[in-house]
Amino acid sequence: MFKPLPLDAARHLPLWRRPTTLLFVMALCMPIAFNAWSALLNNFVIEAAQFDGADIGLLHTVREIPGFLAIGVIAVILFVREQVLGMVSLMLLGVATAFTAWFPSLGGILTITMLSSIGFHYYETVNQSLQLQWLPKAKAPQMLGWLVAAGSAATLVVYGLIVLFWEPLNLSYNLVFMTAGGATALIALFCLLAYPQFDSPTPQTKKLILRRRYWLYYALQFMAGARRQIFVVFAGFMMVEKFGFEVHEVTGLFLINLVINMVAAPLLGRFVAHFGERRTLIFEYSGLALVFALYGGIYWFSWGVVLAACLYVVDHVLFALALALKTYFQKIADPADIAPTAAVAFTINHIAAVFLPVLLGLLWVISPGAVFALAALMALVSLGLSCLIPRHPEAGNETVFSKYASRAPAE
User: Fold this and answer.
1) φ, ψ for residue 211 (rounded to 5)?
2) Which pTM value belongs to this model?
3) Which end of the chain has fewer CB atoms within 10 angstroms, the N or the C?
4) Beta 197-199 vs 4-6: how paired, if at all?
């Protein structure tokens, strides 16, 4: 069970015990706790602790601190295998989610959110690393698309149950949190005990790595983290605060996103494989800039709830194209750099996440439309950076400037 097994030897295992299957089980497991928490969060904090925009901004700042400290994964994997760390982190996420409703105060919610966030962010760091190590480059875009679809399917079941039974059975926050968190913790424990410890072909460098040739990847990660916060923190909060959405209505909106993602994510993976990372990211960031500008218009021009709901769905689909950023790095990276760079990238991704939610929460109180205008500008910056990705990225050809750098000595 805990004896390392070379990745090449895994093809002789039963299908259910292979590395790719484990990635799918993990993709099914994490969203159960995380997305149940997300679906109930805005209503729970408003009803239980009377949160306003400033409070929700503070909560998400606290939630993102472990993401900023994800670089600590490099130190942890000196003593613990990545696969084991991923399963333990999933269990922490599940247990912390299960106890969320036990602490209905600002201090209690912040504390339990910090614990669940440690589990989530350390799991995500390790998960991204294992995906890029275990999936072959030729198949990575399509497989990542299928993994997104699998996560959407798991979340669809959770949201479907909430929508169907929240009002008829008068479900409580505590029951839903306990059920979803407990399920994630138990599945993670099963994965820890049932699967071999897979050894990747290339041993991972277990120290801090910052390489100049990865600068564009770092910049794109930074902007993605800043832009994502506005969607995660304020788009859903808008639906509750401005339009008065109840739990089952918010969850119903999530359900629409999930059904679309289940169908679209594999197609988006093929889209990345066919058109390449450069074109995909240009398309994503152009769309996001337009969506955020229209979000602002909802406040400036008093546009209605139907447009807001449609934008929320489009926003969610466009974010699925972020898998192109993963495959861009996979193509330019030294195979030994994947684990440490995943940790560094996660930290870079969360630099803005630590201070943006609380600052934008204060701005939200003054002008919600200004928050979305700022997001549109961030998307435009990301669009400019994506234009620097070459059509065929690889080691030595990381940006459109690489060809000029390689010519410099000859000239």
Assistant:
1) -105, 135
2) 0.81
3) C
4) parallel
